[in-house]
C-alpha cells in the first residue's frame, strides 16, 4: 500500500478528514485572512521616511543627533477633493514642481515655510529632495486646474510636509497669522539642535549683539550693541543770568514781526518803542512797549 494514497492518507489529510465541519471552516477562515494580509503587504509596502527623519545625523559638523518624533507632526488624511501629484523637480525646500494624474504640470509654493538662504541652503534643498522627489503627494485646498498654486502639502505617509521640514531644521517658519504650529516646531528644532540649528552656521544671537544674514562661506557678521551706540550729544551749559536785551534804534522793527532775543527793545520807523515778547505760540514778536 503506497503512503499518502486515498486508501492510506498521510497524517495531515487524515487529520483534516477526522475534523468536524466547524473546525474545517475555522481553519479555512484563518488561512484566508493570513493570505490577504501577506498580499496587502506585498502590494502596499510601508512608506519609507527619509533617513534624516529617522534619527540619522544631518550634518557632519554638529555634535548633536537629529531625531524627529512622528508624534510631533500630525497625520492629516487627504480628501477626494485634494489633488495628488507626482513630484518631478525640487527647487528649494519651499518650491517644487510635479504632474497630476492627467499629466498637467503644476508648480507648488508650500504654505507656511520659507527656504533657507546662504549657509545650509544646499543641505536644506537636498533634504527636500529626499522627502519629495519622485513621491506622490497631496495638495490640500489647492485650486484645481491652475499651473501655479500655494498649498498645504501632505507626504506619502500623510504627515504635513512643511511642519516636517521645520521640525527637522530644514526650513524656517513663515510669518503671519496661523503660524503658531510652525513657530513651535521651529523652537523645538532649535532647542534640540536639528538641521540648521545643529550646524556650525546656525544663528546664535547673544545678549547685547545683533547677528545678520549668514554668508555662503559660513561666516556671520555681528555688530556689537556697544559699538553701535551713538555718542552722547555735547553737554550744554546753562546759567541763571537773565537774557541779554539789546536796543538797536535803527527803525527796522515792526509790530507783530518776529524778533530775538526775548526782551530786546527797539523802535519802529514811526518812532514807536517796541519790545520782543514771547507770544502764545512760543514765538517771539515785536509788541508796543
Gist of the model:
The protein has 289 residues and is an alpha+beta fold. The chain has 5 helices and 12 strands. It has a 5-stranded mixed beta barrel with strand order 1-2-3-6-5. It has a 3-stranded antiparallel sheet with strand order 10-11-12, with no helix packed on it. A two-stranded antiparallel sheet has the order 4-7.
Please describe the topology of this protein.
Blueprint: H1 11-18, H2 21-43, E1 83-92, E2 95-100, E3 105-110, E4 113-114, H3 121-132, E5 136-140, E6 148-154, H4 161-167, E7 172-173, H5 180-191, E8 209-211, E9 222-224, E10 265-267, E11 273-278, E12 284-288
Helix pairs in contact: 4-5
Characterize the quaternary organization of these chains.
single chain
Number of domains: 3
Mean residue pLDDT: 74
The number of helical runs is 5
What ranges have pLDDT less than 50 throughout 5 or more consecutive residues? 1-5, 40-46, 55-71, 205-229, 236-246
Assigned CATH architecture of the largest domain: Beta Barrel
Percent strand equals: 15-25%
Name the helix and strand elements from N-terminus to C-terminus, one letter apiece. Answer: HHEEEEHEEHEHEEEEE
User: How is the CATH topology of the largest domain named?
Assistant: OB fold (Dihydrolipoamide Acetyltransferase, E2P)
Gyration radius from CA atoms, angstroms: 40 Å
Summarize the amount of helix as a percent range: 10-25%
Class based on secondary structure composition and strand pairing: alpha+beta
* Largest beta sheet: strand ordering: 1-2-3-6-5
Number of strands: 12
Q: Mind describing the biggest β-sheet?
A: 5 strands, mixed, barrel
> At the first level of CATH, what is the class of the largest domain?
Mainly Beta
Shape: rod-shaped
Q: What is the CA–CA distance across the termini?
A: 151 Å
Region (Disordered): 177-289
Biased composition (Low complexity): 198-230
Organism: Kutzneria chonburiensis
Protein name: TNase-like domain-containing protein
Amino acid at each position: 500500500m503506497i503512503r499518502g494514497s486515498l486508501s492510506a492518507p498521510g497524517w495531515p489529510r487524515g487529520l483534516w478528514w477526522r475534523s468536524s465541519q466547524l473546525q474545517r471552516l475555522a481553519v479555512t477562515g484563518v488561512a484566508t485572512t493570513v493570505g490577504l494580509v501577506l498580499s496587502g503587504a506585498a502590494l502596499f509596502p510601508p512608506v519609507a521616511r527619509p533617513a534624516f527623519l529617522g534619527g540619522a545625523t544631518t550634518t557632519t559638523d554638529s555634535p548633536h543627533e537629529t531625531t524627529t518624533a512622528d508624534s510631533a507632526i500630525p497625520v492629516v488624511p487627504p480628501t477626494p477633493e485634494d489633488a495628488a501629484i507626482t513630484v518631478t523637480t525640487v527647487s528649494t525646500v519651499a518650491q517644487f514642481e510635479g504632474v497630476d494624474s492627467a499629466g498637467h504640470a503644476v508648480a507648488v509654493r508650500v504654505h507656511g515655510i520659507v527656504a533657507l538662504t546662504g549657509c545650509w541652503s544646499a543641505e536644506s534643498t537636498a533634504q527636500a529632495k529626499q522627502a519629495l522627489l519622485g513621491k506622490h503627494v497631496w495638495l490640500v485646498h489647492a485650486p484645481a486646474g491652475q499651473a501655479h498654486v500655494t498649498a498645504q502639502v501632505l507626504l506619502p505617509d500623510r504627515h504635513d510636509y512643511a511642519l516636517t521640514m521645520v521640525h527637522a531644521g530644514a526650513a524656517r517658519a513663515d510669518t503671519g497669522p496661523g503660524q503658531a504650529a510652525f513657530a513651535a516646531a521651529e523652537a523645538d528644532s532649535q532647542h534640540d539642535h536639528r538641521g540648521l540649528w545643529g550646524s556650525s552656521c546656525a544663528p546664535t544671537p547673544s545678549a547685547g549683539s545683533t547677528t545678520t544674514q549668514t554668508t555662503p562661506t559660513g561666516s556671520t557678521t555681528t555688530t556689537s550693541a556697544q559699538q553701535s551706540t551713538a555718542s552722547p550729544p555735547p553737554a550744554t551749559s546753562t546759567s541763571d543770568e537773565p537774557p541779554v536785551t539789546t536796543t538797536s534804534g535803527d527803525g527796522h522793527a515792526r509790530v507783530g514781526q518776529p524778533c530775538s532775543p526775548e526782551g530786546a527793545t527797539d523802535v519802529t520807523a514811526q518812532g514807536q518803542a517796541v519790545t520782543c515778547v514771547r507770544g502764545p505760540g512760543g514765538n517771539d514778536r515785536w509788541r508796543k512797549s
